[in-house]
Amino acid sequence: MQEKGTISIHTENIFPIIKKFLYSDNEIFLRELVSNAVDATQKMKRLSSLGQYNGELGELQVEVALDETAKTITISDNGIGMNADEIKKYINQIAFSGATEFMEKFKEAKDANEIIGRFGLGFYSAFMVADQVEINTLSYQEGAEPARWTCDGSTEFEITEGTRTTRGTDIILHINKDSEEFVSKQKLQEILDKYAKFLPVPIKFGERTDQVPDGEDEEGKPKYMSVVSDNIINETTPIWTKAPSELKDEDYLQFYKELYPFSEEPLFWIHLNVDYPFNLTGVLYFPKVKNDFDFQRNKIKLFSRQVFITDEVKDIVPEFLMLLHGVIDSPDIPLNVSRSFLQADSNVKKINTYITKKVADKLSEIFKADRKAYEEKWSDIGLFVKYGYVSDDKFNEKAKDFVLLTNTAKENYTLNEYKEKVTAAQTDKDGQLVYLYTNEPEKQDSFIQSATKKGYDVLVMNSPIDNHFVSQLEQKLEKTSLKRVDADVADKLIKKDDAPATVLTDDQVTQVKTVFEKAITKPGFKVELESLNPDELPVTVTMDEFMRRMKDMAQMGGGMSFYGNLPDNYKVVVNGNHKLISRILETGDENEQAQLAKQAFDLALLSQGLLTGAELTEFVNRSVSLI
């Protein structure tokens, strides 16, 4: 048997899904209805500009009105309106988008893409909060009759003669008991501020009272008078809709204060403006960032034709730029039906790549134009740049010319400059260039001083991204390795051919090693004797560079958890050429030998911050007794 047919979808089954589950947040209803009203107003403006409407436009605006007694919210516009047939077409046919039809009809018009609505479902978000919805409307078309549509949330509706006498539409929501939180002026103001702050048509919500100067009183003091005016909640032409040539620094800074009123001034900003192969506008700000991983994400706001969509932009903006602040507006970013989430699309990847390029170009421009100013900002922007260098190959390629390395003398170098600076002194006997670095300059000062005495330079790598940055440098830089300055004694960090000769016999080496192994009772410490410069410390405690780095990454959640669970193991390097070792060998008292060895070992622990608690107290008491 073979049969073909059409699957039937009954509105009584799909309507509850649209009402209850289409939208992730019921406050979206106000965004959708206000956006529809803006659409209708924009269409009216477009028809007038095309000569298809010759009447007076009047003051185009959208009004939101709250009646707390009647528990109704009304969204009104003076846009194109509808007649009864259009209500049947656009309202009763679920998922028929009037905006889509309008854009197709006037696709050659310059600003057709200003129309916001796309899916034809936004209207039904009203039933998430209302148990009855009314439409009172009058079409702009000559001779049109007003029409009224009512629906109680079921699949039944009624169309009767309307009462509206001027062009436009009123949407009246009778709020249900479960949604009475929206019968609040403060709540509606919050939603409008969130979603409609930058819509292209003025949005009125009630009135506001301002105190304005009114001359002076008899004593010459300024007087003020109360002036009542419309409460317009939005800025219809935000700065990202303007050309950069129209704007001054003050405009960008003022806009930043509006977005983030409690933040410090940004370091600088990037104005995005592209119309091919996708449309994208926006302004991204570089904020001052603390040197930690408590990133204040979700500070970039995504808009679609000036309608706020979300502040979750991780697919559009590269991961390393999630620390930026600002706005992005694009009609070409694919949204799901409820306009709440992004959908995978080639445009998202293109926009991501474009933003990466713009940021890299801006940083390169600042670096080349005013290096001193760039270096002054490095403590704030270094985290951005290093994060991008580590995580994004395209950014890495550009950033290699403006990422900076900073040493303990607070001098900054590009990668090429630093290579030239240290090649002569820090190339080992095998031709490997070794960069030394510290992540805690104060704590590792004795190691830094030992390295500088040998003519070595030490970099500061103390940002939370530097563990990964160090690894990335080793991958990218030819025949170069990086070692933390306390990974070994200075003589062994960069192996040379002119190593100091040993002054101990084999028997003496065995004797000294035995003394230290007996004196050191802490587990995880392995004693080794080395022939070092006599001026170096008698004992140094170090951790293998590889193991320490893996453990650091494990603490940051870098996929190295295995290493994080391993016990700490240290190397105790005894300097066989130091005079203290000679003293230990010369005394025949085992107790004195043990005391000297323990004291030298504890000093080494102290320099690494590894001596604490009762052991530190014991060390202090022993030191006093030795004075």
From TrEMBL:
Q: Check the record and name the NCBIfam families matching this protein.
A: PRK05218.1
Where do the Histidine kinase/HSP90-like ATPase domain residues begin and end?
25-179
**Tagged with keyword Chaperone:** yes
Task: Quote the InterPro entries the UniProt record gives.
Answer: HATPase_C_sf (IPR036890), HATPase_dom (IPR003594), HSP90_C (IPR037196), Hsp90_fam (IPR001404), Hsp90_N (IPR020575), Ribosomal_Su5_D2-typ_SF (IPR020568)
Q: Name one GO molecular function term.
A: unfolded protein binding
Positions of ATP binding: 32, 36, 77, 82, 97-98, 169, 339
Q: Which gene encodes it?
A: htpG
- What is the name attached to this protein's record? Chaperone protein HtpG
Q: Which domain of life is it from?
A: Bacteria
Q: Which SUPFAM superfamilies match?
A: ATPase domain of HSP90 chaperone/DNA topoisomerase II/histidine kinase (SSF55874), Ribosomal protein S5 domain 2-like (SSF54211)
Q: Which UniProt keywords apply?
A: ATP-binding, Chaperone, Cytoplasm, Nucleotide-binding, Stress response
For this protein, the record's Gene3D superfamilies field holds: 3.30.230.80, 3.40.50.11260, Heat shock protein 90, C-terminal domain, Histidine kinase-like ATPase, C-terminal domain
Q: Does the keyword Chaperone apply?
A: yes
Q: What is the lineage of its organism?
A: Bacteria, Pseudomonadati, Bacteroidota, Sphingobacteriia, Sphingobacteriales
Which family is this protein grouped under? Answer: Belongs to the heat shock protein 90 family.
